[in-house]
């Protein structure tokens, strides 16, 4: 940010006095802001970041890496919303695509306390106060909604409300806000089934072990449109409290957190995030609201 100071016209004696004595409060504020911006820019300058491997940026994500977040289970392709966002962040931190290294890290290991085998992790991780006790988050790069999906023939295929889901068998990936949405919002009578990943949850839906599963909205569109025969989106769950947001995850107290947040903020402000959402993620048309 460039700070600009516009002098105020004053009488000759007053102008001389101001020049001889000290800066005005406005000048002081401007100088402080400019110095702060310069300090922040210097701290995040390309080549100055303390990464796991000098000159490289190691990015973690889960395996498999699901669409539409990553295309064809290839995080390094730059295709898919999160892959594209990751490379945009890397570029703003001064790392070329060839300087990015990908690491396979499970969701549960990423959010657990302790040192990380990555500099940053991008894996549809929702920012929560509980998780902040163990890890750092960047500024949010995506606003998420949880969605219930099923297949034709399921006993909930015509469900229109949360009440219609409370006698159903529902499941989601372990440790996710999708699972939390079942237990805290839907509160099914039989409890929630938990799975290691979305592939296992999807398999349980196909074989009838569960009546429906909960995933984020873009995943819901992809699963019902490309992976499930006769897949159906039941609807989006209500947003309760603070809107659910995805953030880039970092080790607790990471020296990179501020710089990564700065990069994400730039992506939002210059419209890059909006373009990437439009390119890779389906909109909410066709996903009714459940109440």
Structural class: alpha/beta
From the coordinates shown, what is the CATH architecture of the largest domain? Answer: 3-Layer(aba) Sandwich
* CATH H-level homologous superfamily name of the largest domain: Periplasmic binding protein-like II
**Portion in beta strands:** 15-25%
CATH domain topology of the largest domain: D-Maltodextrin-Binding Protein, domain 2
CATH class (first level) name of the largest domain: Alpha Beta
Query: How many helix segments?
Result: 10
Q: Termini distance?
A: 44 Å
Overall shape: it is: elongated
Number of strands: 10
Radius of gyration, in angstroms, nearest whole number: 24 Å
Give the topology string: H per helix, E per strand. HHEHEHEHEEEHEHEHEEHH
Spatial sequence of strands, sheet with the most strands:
7-6-8-5-9
Describe this structure in words.
With 291 residues, the chain is α/β, with parallel strands linked by helices. It has helices at residues 12-21, 25-43, 81-92, 107-111, 129-132, 177-186, 198-206, 217-227, 257-269, 272-280, and strands at 57-61, 100-104, 120-121, 135-143, 146-151, 170-173, 192-195, 212-216, 231-236, 245-251. Helix 3 (81-92) links the parallel strand 1 (57-61) and strand 2.
How would you summarize the topology of this molecule?
Blueprint: H1 12-21, H2 25-43, E1 57-61, H3 81-92, E2 100-104, H4 107-111, E3 120-121, H5 129-132, E4 135-143, E5 146-151, E6 170-173, H6 177-186, E7 192-195, H7 198-206, E8 212-216, H8 217-227, E9 231-236, E10 245-251, H9 257-269, H10 272-280
Parallel strand pairs: 1-2, 1-3, 6-7, 6-8
Antiparallel strand pairs: 4-10, 5-8, 5-9
Helix pairs in contact: 3-9
């Amino acid at each position: 940010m460039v700070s600009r100071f516009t002098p105020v016209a004053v009488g000759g004696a007053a102008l001389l006095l101001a020049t001889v004595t000290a800066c005005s409060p406005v000048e002081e504020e401007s100088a402080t802001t400019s110095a702060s911006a310069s300090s922040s820019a210097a701290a995040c300058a390309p080549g100055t970041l303390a990464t796991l491997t000098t000159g490289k940026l190691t990015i973690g994500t889960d395996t498999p890496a699901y669409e539409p977040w990553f295309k064809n289970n290839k995080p390094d392709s730059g295709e898919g919303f999160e892959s594209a966002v990751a490379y945009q962040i890397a570029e703003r931190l001064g790392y070329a695509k060839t300087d990015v290294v990908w690491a396979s890290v499970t969701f549960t290991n990423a959010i657990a306390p302790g040192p990380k085998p990555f500099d940053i992790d991008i894996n549809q991780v929702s920012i929560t106060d509980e998780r902040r006790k163990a890890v750092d988050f960047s500024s949010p790069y995506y606003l998420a909604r949880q969605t219930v999906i099923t297949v034709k023939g399921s006993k909930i295929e015509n469900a229109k409300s949360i009440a219609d889901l409370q006698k159903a068998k529902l499941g989601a990936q372990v440790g996710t806000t999708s699972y939390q949405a079942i237990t805290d919002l839907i509160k099914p009578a039989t409890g929630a089934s938990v799975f290691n990943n979305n592939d296992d949850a999807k398999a349980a839906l196909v074989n009838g072990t569960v009546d429906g599963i909960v995933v984020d909205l873009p995943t819901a569109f992809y699963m019902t449109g490309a992976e499930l025969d006769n897949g159906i989106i039941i609807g989006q769950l209500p947003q309760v409290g603070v809107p659910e947001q995805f953030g880039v995850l970092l080790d607790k107290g990471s020296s990179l957190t501020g710089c990564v947040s700065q990069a994400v903020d730039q992506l939002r402000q210059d419209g890059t995030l909006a373009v990437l959402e439009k390119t890779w993620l389906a909109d909410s048309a066709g996903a009714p609201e459940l109440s």
